[in-house]
Amino acid sequence: MTPQFCMHLMSKLLKGNGRALMLWIRMLSAHAFLFYALYAWKVMGVGGAGNLLQFFVGILIGCSLLVMLAPAEYDPDYESAARASVGTYARLAICMAMAWFGEIAMATAFLAATAIMALHRSRCLEARPRAEESPHAAERKA
């Protein structure tokens, strides 16, 4: 990687007072927690990690069902296709690891929550205001 590319990448991540970088860190740390909890539970034999993981998946299912009822409003945080792709692949890897270790019901619930959240994300992106409907369109025409 060239220094120019690194500077370009950092400027993209730090735009908006570092909001994009914080969203990446939050997403990656949440998935790292899920991977580690599953590893600690199934490989290291820590039963509390399994309880924590089951609790988290239950909360995720509840939240995804509530999100399904929410109206689709545009949120610019949904614009990052790279973050959405990395998050989706990480969740699918977690789901496959759960199934590998024999937690089929938990993997199914986690996959259902992931699908519901992806559907909501696509609905929110479809609700993006069109250029002619935006409040700044009148200013550009004048």
Tell me the count of domains: 1
Strand segment count:
0
Q: Note the main sheet.
A: none
What does the average pLDDT come to? 81
Strand content: under 5%
Structural class: mainly alpha
Taking pLDDT < 50 over at least 5 consecutive residues as the criterion, the unreliable ranges are none
- Separation of termini? 44 Å
Rounded radius of gyration (Å)? 19 Å
Number of helices: 6
**Helix-strand pattern, N to C?**
HHHHHH
Shape: flat
- Fraction of residues in H or I helices: over 70%
Account of the protein in words:
The protein is flat and about 45 Å long. It contains six helices and no strands. By secondary structure, the protein is mainly alpha-helical. The protein has one domain (28-130). The mean pLDDT is 81.
Q: How would the blueprint of this fold be written?
A:
Blueprint: H1 3-13, H2 19-42, H3 47-69, H4 81-100, H5 104-126, H6 137-141
Characterize this entry briefly:
This protein is mainly alpha-helical and 142 residues long. The chain contains six helices and no strands.
List its traits:
flat; single chain; mainly alpha
